[in-house]
Amino acid sequence: MGALSRKAVALTALCSLVATLAAAPAFADEPGDAPVLDDATLTWGISGYAQVGIFGPWTLSGARGGAEILRGSVSGGSQDVYAVAPVPATSMPRSTPQKTPNAVRFTGGTGTVDPQTGAAELSWTGSYTVNAYPASLNAPDEVYSDPVLSVARSGAGTLSFDVAVGSGVDLDGQPSAPVRVGRVTVLTFSSGARSGLDDDSFRLTPDYQGVTVDAAGGAQVRSCSTSGAATGWWGSWPADFVAAMPASLQTHFYSTGCQGTQDSKPALPVDVGFTLDGPDPDPSTTPTPAPTTTAGPTPGPTPTAPAEPGALTWSFADATASLGTATTADGAFTATGTLPAVTITDTRAGSPGFTLSGQARPFTTHDGAHVLGAQHLGWQPSLLEPVAGVRAGRAITPSTVTGGGLASPRTLVVGGATRGERTVRVTAGLTLRVPDGAAPGRYETVLTITALG
């Protein structure tokens, strides 16, 4: 698909990294195939402990990208999007009247959800910041970015984030250095964790009870009584996540005692929302007017397969694309190119619309000795001519995060319902960006374009 070159300082030799992108068409409209989404939501209230804290509710701030902060009545807000029952149903503390929690909400999630089983592979972009202490204590900020959710039909799964902790002062008043945790599983879900599965949402209850951890923050309490209506709860968030956090923050995520605020430490449920209806044009965007005879690009290649009456057909202008020779800058190889034009013709009467999406396989060398994740590939879809009721998918940037970039299904183009025939041509700018430490060699991948409609 492209060539990556750099001079190896030690040997003063020119090394190249080459990749070839081949587009392989495929339809996925058979029953049981998971629909590709680009509008999934993820809403989460962190924990009951985050709603009360030691000095009051934790501060949620700095929402960026697809993230937003929802203020509940615990902080004087009025959000009504995310609601949970109090202890013992969840870790939300009881109050009179019952208060609503603060939460973070991610929108624009992409991936797949099987509406029959609830199996899901979804990812979001954006970040938010958490601080459990008043600003006057200069405690370090925790930044959680780009969540990736993977859930099996059993309900078992994981929710991971890219996590970073800023500099600050620890509980002993000593300076604490920033920590780049990286991609880590923040929540796990056991079989049966999913509830409320319907045609647009489900809820996941994270693991905590009985999970053990050996943490630098202090000993974990692993036995609590249930006498006197006590919950008997003890446990932990995932051990790897707890261990990766600074010692001064670790105790927020596991049991160091019984009852009281300890019952607030389990993670609150995670709500996932999605839309499985037929594709519609973006309601926030004014439909693009149809092109006139005096404007628009020069027509591209004629589709290789003419449309039959009453059918949805599509084809590539070319089966391969090249990104040429890449350059190195800012510690990364970068190469760019263009996806061959895809022509979609819809002649169905009363068409419900269509969605085309793409997902890349990992890049591999010919001998299979080296592999680059498909998350390093991104794209910027665009229509070659404006068509009423049709919109290109959003830009996807290359990523170092598992499941990012084109490693997950991403929308190329969406056409809303229509009564008339139409032809749409779409392309995408392609960008490959990989760390300059990648092994030199020739790499190839296959980009599969899937049509639903």
TrEMBL record:
Keywords: Signal
Annotated Pro residues bias: 281-290
Signal peptide per UniProt: 1-28
Comp. bias regions, Polar residues: 92-101
Disordered: annotated span: 89-111, 258-310
Transmembrane region(s): none
Protein name: Htaa domain-containing protein
